[in-house]
Amino acid sequence: MHLQWYPGHMTKALRQMREDIRIVDMIIELVDARVPISSRNPDLDELGRDKARLILLNKADLADEVVSRYFIDTFSRKGHFVLEVNAKTRHGLGAIAKIVEQTCAEKRERDERRGINKRPIKAMVVGIPNVGKSTFINSYAGRAAAKTGNKPGITKGRQWIRLGKDLELLDTPGLLWPKFTDQAVGQKLAMIGTINENILDVGELSLMIIKFLGKFYPDSLANRYSIEPQRPIDGELESPSVILAKICESRHCYLKGGELHLTRAAAMIADDFRNGRLGRFSLDRPGE
Length: 288
Ligand code: G4P
Prior knowledge:
Blueprint: H1 10-22, E1 26-32, H2 43-47, E2 52-58, H3 65-77, E3 81-84, H4 96-103, H5 105-113, E4 121-126, H6 133-141, E5 145-149, E6 159-163, E7 167-171, H7 183-192, H8 202-216, H9 220-225, H10 240-250, H11 262-274
Parallel strand pairs: 1-2, 1-4, 2-3, 4-7
Antiparallel strand pairs: 5-6, 6-7
Helix pairs in contact: 8-10, 8-11, 10-11
């Protein structure tokens, strides 16, 4: 499976992002906790290097907690604030306000010294598609949010969302895309469903998932589909296509003529994997 996915209009989008970053106090970057490195656009580090950053590991409910802890540590050591959150249930969102205050304490003091009234902190919310940005904004802003619409100097499509007196969020729709030259990154994004299914072969995708699980979470398929656990024989794991066929049988996925309906089983595996029904997994691994 060869994946190449980087929209041509990215240069323009990055220029826009550079302008947006200039007017905010901090950046709230959402990443997918299952792929906290692969779901970032590395350009942001360069563009936002002078701004405070809060990284939200969203969908933490779907990720391997031990691995998440490792990445929280990694990002913290780079000087970023980091939180694990679940935008859907709002778990973890309560800690954001304090961090926002902390990141902007200096600005507040400076304003006070100059006799400027307390101004709301301006935070830009960024994240690649499907990372949960809309869910986050809706959950975090909730009913308290007043969409303030366009402001002078802000391009159409940018949306300021006011949260009480102290915070304004700048939503930047669809601006940040994943960027990858590395096939492994593309494959991981495909496995979690960031990359659209219709450019992918679901059969191949399920084989990648089976291979990954066999390597890192060997009991997960056995537990869900009542098949024998994947154990290496002479150091080799059973071929993913054999396992796919076993799952297909176990789930009675047959075509009318009695042949195995492998595509149906493959789609089921991909869906179960993405929605956490096979367990919690992290595809970016420490030390990679
Ligand atoms: P985007 O704006 O970044 O493109 O993403 P969006 O909020 O639309 O979220 C993409 C999908 O991820 C949605 O699922 C959403 O419910 C889900 N999601 C967001 N945050 C979390 C989280 O913390 N944990 C989990 N488990 N899921 C999360 P969907 O299938 O598209 O919609 P729905 O089934 O929720 O209706």
